Amino acid sequence: MRQNSDVLIVGSGVNSLATAVIMQRAGLRVSVFEQASEPGGAVKSGAYTTPGFTHDWAAMNLSLFAGSPFFQEFGDMLTEAGLEFVPAHHCFASSFADGRWLGIGSDAEANAAVIHAFANSDSETWRALSDEFPDQASHIFAILGSSFGFRAVAKNIWKLLRAKKLSGALDLGQFLASSPRAWLDETFTSPHVKSTLAAWGMHLDFAPDVAGGALFPYLEAMANQTFGMVIGKGGADTVTRALLKCIEAAGGTVTCDARVDRILIEQGRAVGVRLSDGSEHHAAKSVIANVAPKNLSSLIGETEPHYDKGLKNFRHAPGTMMVHLAMEDLPDWAASDQLRGYAYVHLAPSMDQMARCYQQAIAGLLPQEPVVVVGQPTTIDPSRAPAGKHTLWLQVRMVPGEILGDAGGEITALDWQTAAEPMAQRALDIVEAHAPGTRAKIIAQRIVTPAELEADNPNLVGGDQICGSHHLSQHFIYRPMRGRTDGTTPIKDLYHTGAAVWPGAGTGVGPGYLLGKKLTS
């Protein structure tokens, strides 16, 4: 066994890399081991279709990273290392079958005016929500950005009660427990406005009727309006590349094609890792595992009943299929040419359609009408394609990791290798209905199935891009399980991080930041 590091980290997702940066600043030697051929987990980019076109493998929106406490603390260093964002002032939109569309950008009055065309009362509601957002955000972000230790929880509750009194605190609690449909029906009248916002819940696993999901449509709408959206210049992997440069400059190492087969435990303490090639590496201080709970279980074996049961029972969200397209031009959206300027165009016509899609995927069925998220990164960052050309980033949500049938009664395949092409065509049919002629503009295509997403990154179990359901029974004090929100495990000096750990998924590296600060404080 070689003692070559103070800290060993399993997995190179951005949470791992953020933790490594924090720990190296504290003077610790860090080594990261990644089973894939390149680092970054879901935050990577490449010419997945044809040379000259850069696509984001999974994550595209970097707004959470840009607004994170980690970036506030290390932004200057990362910028010096090459990190560069491109702002999107036209953030997201929805196109509807009736020929109408609704888009939200960073101009609050313009947003209210667009909403006014659907319902005057909704535009007034929007203005009220916009006015209240700074106060609401201060409390919500305090909850989402803090640990769930007793002192942190008590401090947040005290501040909330002082600011909002008991009635206001209870109202916020009710909102945090509400489903998207419940909150949207209480707040807006226009089905178009409701659907435009509800689509954000489908980026996680909050279909319209899932309790606890109201927060995400609200936050995405208000935060995009207030702060705008950013993507990575040249690709989302600008984050990964900058983090790697910082780690290596401080003497750390990130080794790819290095699968960890076992976390080595001696007398109840994690002391190192064994790789698939048989080599063993020692950690003088700690081992950190950025892995899905079921995979952590296979690396450590049995510990204590409550913890082992929690790892085993951790639930994953439905999967996602990606379709990367190299394009001659952007889609010609039938509803309006203005849609060509938006970072995201959601094709999710109603809350009922989103609910059906989700339920079909949960039941193991290929949805008859999936939600399609059309990312248009080159409208914001032309450097990702040759002059005059474009890329499209399609997320097909929701789909089952394991196929049991087809809700549409057309696709007979029960394996993703065979089902991928017809399912991609179903998604492209939806795009074509909103933007006729899109297929004719395709230069090259790359389909990435849920099975491929998991093979590339085992944290994405069944193609679950958020590494675990965020439903209330598996969020807040229950992520990944009761008593382990801080990344501790029953094994001394072994810590758990990544999207499966509080505060959960996204590019904001919250789990990695909180753990890094905990271990260096």
From TrEMBL:
Probable oxidoreductase that may play a role as regulator of mitochondrial function. SUPFAM superfamilies: FAD/NAD(P)-binding domain (SSF51905). Residues 17-337 form the Amine oxidase domain. It comes from Parasedimentitalea maritima. It comes from the Bacteria. This is Pyridine nucleotide-disulfide oxidoreductase domain-containing protein 2. PANTHER family: DEHYDROGENASE-RELATED, PHYTOENE DEHYDROGENASE. GO terms for molecular function: oxidoreductase activity. Interacts with COX5B; this interaction may contribute to localize PYROXD2 to the inner face of the inner mitochondrial membrane. InterPro entries: Amino_oxidase, FAD/NAD-bd_sf.
